[in-house]
Structure formats: C-alpha cells, structure tokens
Write a structure and sequence with these properties.
Layout (H helix, E strand, L loop, with lengths): L2 E4 L5 E3 L2 H15 L4 H17 L11 E4 H14 L3 H33 L19 H20 L3 H8 L22 H5 L3 E2 L4 E2 L5 H16 L6
C-alpha cells in the first residue's frame, strides 16, 4: 500500500508519520499533558485510522491519498477520543493560527498586484500616505516594502490579542510598518519647543513670528524626530 499526501498547493508527496508526531509534540509543548509515549501512541492510532478507514479507501487500488486538512481532522479526533483535551485545543489553535497566516499571505499577494498593476485613483491603499506618490516607481517599491513589513509584524512580532485588536479596528497602530526600526511620528510639544526659540547645538533659532514660519519649523522638527533611530 502506497500512502501519499496532497499538499495545499497541489503537490503530492510521500506520507510521513513523523510530521504527525512532530505536530502533536508541538501542541503538547504548550500543555505538557502527554508523555512521548502518549504522543507516539496517538500517532500510531492516526496512521492506523488513515490506513483502514473506509473514508479514505481507493476503489481502484490499495493506494491511498490524503488531503492535509483531512489528516489534521483525524489527529484532532484521535486526541479527543483519548481524552487529551488540552492538547487537542492547542492543536486546533495551532491550525487556526496557520490558517490565518496563509490567508494573510494571500492578502499580501493581492496587495502586491494592486500596487503593481492598479492606478492610485482606483485603489485606496495607494492613497493612504500623502507623502508617497504610489504611481511612481520608487513610491511603488516603498509601498511594497511597507506592506511586507506590516505582514511580518502582524504574524511574527505582535501578540495575538494586539494583532486582532488592530485588525478589528479596536485599536490603531500608527506607522506599524516603521515601528521596528525608528521612532516615528512621536508626540512633540511644539509650543514648548518653539516658545522663545531654541538651540540646535550649532546655532540658535528664534521664536517664529508668522504662521508660515511656525508651520515650517514644526514640519522640520517632526521629520527630524521621526528619522532618529531608537538605541537600546
């Protein structure tokens, strides 16, 4: 009997029970509910079910092919049947997390397509930063980088509760894409900064006498501050 697995992208590979064992071990690392022997026992039961269940019987030959999701369903079922409820819960959460990451990857690819092939008048995402011309080549490259940065931060940096809160608009993380590399758009007390003027270390700037001068100095101060790197 030949056992194969069809991966999500359609590739067919040889069935490997070690992947089941490692997945259960990963879930159990969160709960410490099972011994190594328990994990091996559950793995063996999953493999036995896959080999013998009529649900996976090939009418033409003894060979069997499984979809990844079906194997994961069986793992959950066997864990529950053997009363490893906490590990089953951890395994289910692991599946959900990776499903969300795959969905995010697809969203990122769609975003790339919009950035590369759509006009800014047709795509809101290309107009969300007034400082970037996303119809220009360098603007497009910068935007591709910022969207990749957001994907990385969402999936590998933020705690799940914060990522979910931001995704569901309960909070807003401003300039998330730059948050790992620079202090960006920090709050500056402009009244305190500009009142009476201030020294730059190389010279003295007097207090502005016009709204135009005030606005210009404010922009320079904020831009300078957001480009300062955070040193820890």
């Amino acid at each position: 009997m030949t056992l194969t697995v069809t991966k999500r992208a359609g590739e067919i590979v040889e069935f490997d029970s070690a992947r089941i064992f490692n997945a259960i071990m990963g879930a159990n690392s969160e709960t410490k509910e099972m011994t190594d022997e328990d994990v091996q026992n559950v793995t063996d039961k999953v493999v036995s079910f896959l080999k013998t269940s009529p649900l996976f019987r090939n009418k033409i030959s003894e060979d069997r092919n499984f979809q990844v999701e079906k194997i994961q369903d069986v793992v959950e079922m066997v864990l529950m049947e053997n009363k490893f409820y906490e590990t089953a819960k951890s395994y289910i959460e692991y599946r959900q997390k990776h499903s969300q990451r795959r969905s995010a990857q697809k969203d990122l690819i769609h975003t790339y397509k919009d950035m590369l092939f759509a006009d800014s008048t047709d795509v809101d995402l290309k107009r969300d930063n007034a400082n970037i011309n996303t119809d220009a080549p360098m603007g497009i490259m910068l935007k591709l980088g910022t969207e990749s940065s957001k994907y990385f931060i969402n999936n590998f940096v933020l705690k799940e509760e914060y990522e979910e809160a931001d995704r569901t608009d309960h909070i807003h993380i401003h300039d998330k894409d730059f948050s790992l590399i620079t202090l960006n758009c920090c709050q500056i007390d402009l009244l305190k900064l500009l009142h009476g003027g201030f020294s730059t270390g190389h010279g003295f700037l007097r207090e502005p006498n016009s709204i135009r001068a005030y606005a210009s100095l404010a922009c320079i101060a904020i831009q300078s501050n957001q480009n300062d790197m955070l040193q820890i």
